[in-house]
Amino acid sequence: MADNILVMDHITKEFPGVKALDNVNLEVQRGEIHALIGENGAGKSTLMNVLSGQYPYGSYTGTVTYEGEECKFKNLNDSEAKGIVIIHQELALIPLLSIGENMFLGNEIKNKSGSIDWDRTYSEAEKHMAQVGLHESAQTLIKDIGTGKQQLVEIAKAFSKKVKLLILDEPTSSLNDEDAKMLLDLLMEFKKNGLTSIIITHKLNEIIYCADRCTIIRDGTTIETLTKGVDDLSEDRIIKGMVGRSMDDRYPTRKHNVSKEVMLEVKDWTVHHPLYPEKIVDNKINCKVHKGEVVGFSGLQGAGRTEFAMSVFGKSYGSNISGELYIKGEKVNLKNPHDAIRHGLAYVTEDRKTNGLILGESIRFNTTLARLSKVCEKGVVNTDMEVHLADEMTKEMGTKTPSNEQKIGNLSGGNQQKALLGKWMFTEPDILILDEPTRGIDVLAKFEIYQLMIELAKKDKGIIMISSEMPELLGMCDRIYVMSEGRLAGEFTAEEATQERIMASIMQEQNKK
Questions:
Q1: Which one of 54, 454, 459, 468 counts the least CB within 10 Å of its CB?
Q2: Burial classification of residue 219, based on how many CB atoms lie within 10 Å of its CB (0-12 exposed, 13-18 middle, 19 or more buried)
Q3: Tens digit of pLDDT for each residue in 32-86?
Q4: Which H or E run contains 86?
Q5: Do the beta carbons of residue 108 and residue 121 sit within 8 Å?
Q6: What is the C-alpha to C-alpha distance for residues 511 and 508, in angstroms, rounded to an integer?
């Protein structure tokens, strides 16, 4: 008989007008890495919020049995007291506090007088940091370490709470391949010491790499559980379980017949850090985007791709920016994002929840936000016109929602991404910069985003696609620029580009240092 640390039995959770979970069952064995997978909106995060007490006992039906005991958690503190710790996709760290302060925030170590014992705080923090292989001072500020190390801080924080069951929701969505592999290897090391982990991820290669079993959820219902070494645990098999059918092609087919007309050209573009002007972030970048072309930007984390994109989009990043920018052959000086929008540029940020959308507002509100002038008469928003145009955009993007008055924060990740793309399509751009457009969304939602991109290219839009997933760039782009440490390290056509060539050009540039 299996030694189950967790059994969730017939869990049903409803929100007004929506049944998010419908008799979901989940069994997790002690000491395993268990993947929980499904499309955006399938109910994965909702199920974990039930487990962690974020949705308290009484707000759902069904039973949660942990270590042989039925649990009726009222909040996160209750579940953490039992050793269940959840790390969400949006890390709960305060940038201007130190690692040690973050690790014990709300659970401060105090001395006999009742004040915080900082010596013990930092020594305990560094003890747990050593457990996860994080070699930093506990007094280092969170803002001064990269995303990969911040993820390790969250895991070290879990160890400080004596974690027995660790839940990670999209832990690698903002990490590069190297950092993602290090994190997965760390989980596998923890497994050897008896730690049980549940991982939610859309990256199917990660499931195959580290998971012992995976449970597939579709439309709020458990479909099946697959076991490594017993069942077929291939990407194709997992996708079939997720979407109910096989997907033979991950990327829509298209012909690479691009116009010779140049939509965007950048010459000798140099960008300095906004806080440290002596530091060059992007150094003499030269690139072109033709009409109807999808141009990829590849590179490791910190290569300067996002900084370059933001600086081109109305100097929304950087200082001492120099170089020349041409749109449709005309030299332009875009002083701010408003100038960029007016000249036909759109920038779809990599961080939709912080910089792209206002989650507490409606889809309608977000759709028109970047170009309110289209729905204004004499400075006043014409609500009827706004409703009509927002509805048209939602249909065009294929965003699934009962109403455009729905708060955008209530949508699944894939539908939020479509709404974000719709917001920028509303500005009627000629050139779109898409920064990690498929981050944190499932394979079916990715395919739909790819189809939207191809349709835009057919309409003669020029598209820049920044992505950390090389297969995605190889499957979608007409040309790929490779960036390394703020410089262009290579340029490949669709026919020339391979993962090996891209990585070789990155390493060659790094070896020049």
A1: 459
A2: middle
A3: 999 999 877 788 888 999 999 999 999 999 999 999 999 999 999 999 999 999 9
A4: strand 84-87
A5: yes
A6: 5
In order, the DSSP letters of 285-310 are EEEEEETT-EEEEE--TTSSHHHHHH
**Quick count: other Cβ atoms within 10 Å of Cβ 42?**
24
Residues 313 and 499 sit within 8 Å (Cβ to Cβ): no
Tokens coding 443 = 């394979």
In Å, what is the CA distance from 53 to each residue of 16, 50, 157, 448? 19, 5, 18, 34
Q: Which residues are CB-neighbours of 449 under 8 A, at least 6 positions away?
A: 414, 417, 418, 421, 437, 438, 441
| pTM for the structure as a whole | 0.71
SS3 354: helix
CA distance 136 to 154: 14
| pLDDT in the model for residue 513 | 58
Burial 85-118 (b: 16+ CB within 10 A, else e): bbbbbebebeeeebbbbbbbeeeebeeeeeeeeb
- Residues paired with residue 69 on neighbouring β-strands, in sequence order: 66
What is the three-class DSSP state of 344?
coil
Please write the tens of the pLDDT for every residue from 125-162: 999 999 888 888 999 999 888 877 888 898 888 888 88
Angle at 165 between CA 160 and CA 167, to 5 degrees: 95
- Which residues on adjacent β-strands are paired with residue 219? none
Phi, psi of 389 (to 5 degrees): -70, -35
| Cα 199 from Cα 191, distance rounded (Å) | 13
**Number of CB atoms found within 10 A of residue 77's CB:** 11
Max CA distance (Å), the chain: 75
Place of tokens 């596998």: 188
Cα-based angle 51, 49, 104 (whole degrees, multiple of 5): 90
Alpha-carbon distance 431 to 326, whole Å? 12
pLDDT digits (tens, 9 = 90+) for 217-272: 988 899 999 999 999 888 888 888 887 766 667 788 877 777 889 999 999 999 99
Q: What is the pLDDT of residue 245?
A: 63
Instruction: Output the 3-class SS for 68-84.
Output: CEEECCCCHHHHHHCCE
Tell me the two tokens of residue 178: 């190297």
List, as one string, the DSSP characters of 405-473: TSBGGGS-HHHHHHHHHHHHHTT--SEEEEESTTTT--HHHHHHHHHHHHHHHHTT-EEEEE-S-HHHH
Write the CB contacts of 12 (distance below 8 Å, at least 6 apart in sequence): 19, 21, 22, 23, 24, 60, 61, 62
Q: Are 242 and 443 in contact (CB under 8 A)?
A: yes
End-to-end alpha carbon distance in the chain = 57
The contacts of residue 435 (CB under 8 Å, 6+ apart) are 305, 306, 309, 347, 348, 349, 350, 466
Q: What is the DSSP string of 131-163?
A: HTT--S-TTSBGGGS-HHHHHHHHHHHHHHTT-
